[in-house]
Amino acid sequence: MKLITVKATINAPLSQVWEKWTIAHHVTKWNFASPDWHCPSAENNLVEGGEFHHLMAAKDGSFQFDFWGTYQKITIEKSLDITLGDGRKMFVYFEKSGDQTIIEERFEPEHENSEELQQAGWQAILDNFKQYAESSLTPF
Question: Could you give the strand order of the β-sheet that contains 51-58, starting from the edge strand earlier in sequence?
Answer without folding.
Answer: 4-10, 100-107, 89-97, 79-84, 64-75, 51-58, 37-44
